[in-house]
Write a structure and sequence with these properties.
Blueprint: H1 2-12, H2 15-24, E1 29-30, H3 31-38, H4 42-54, E2 58-63, E3 66-71, H5 76-90, H6 92-105, H7 113-122, E4 125-129, H8 133-138, E5 145-146, E6 164-168, H9 175-186, E7 191-193, H10 198-203
Parallel strand pairs: 4-5, 4-6, 6-7
Antiparallel strand pairs: 1-3, 2-3
Helix pairs in contact: 3-4, 5-6
Amino acid sequence: MFSYFADLAKVLGNGHRLELIELLAQGEQPVEVLSQRTGLSFANASQHLQQLRKAGLVVGRRSGKNIIYRLEDGPIVETITALRKLAEHNVAAVQDVVATYFDQLDNLDPIGPDDLMDRMRTGSVTLLDVRPEDEFRAAHIPGALNIDLQALESRIAELPMDMEIVAYCRGAYCVLSFQAVKLLRARGYRVTRFSEGLPEWRASGRAVATA
């Protein structure tokens, strides 16, 4: 049994594969899009996806000339989240990156899922999803407004100045939400981050919406 566990850990022991898992946790994607968003070549992305498929972590389907991948069922997001938390607690290099990079981008505590739900029930916040539109359409937190980070500055007038904004994206360390917070604060908005992302929200059993 421990050998089986170790074999699975070997598949997960690659940063590119973990990034692919995070992207697929947003919704199914063709190899071409995964290649573009990770910066991997098409062939390299395909090889990593094949390793994930053999391990039972992703499944692919053909659509015309494209292969579309999605996460397999099971506690995959929970496993990656647990790995992140273990690294934050035990790996000095991770702690250093958080302190020297992410804390400089946003040194204010983000809000958690329970707090976010309470604020959304009372209508006291605007929830901003800064992921690309295709990821938003695949699944998003109900009530969220989608403005891709690249379009945020040109569409900033769509956001209310008199209400707190909570930004979220793919996960706890997705830089899109950090950059959105920085931009909006520079324009005088009251804005904070959601402490997690869409995958963790869905994995916890909370409802998601599709467009």
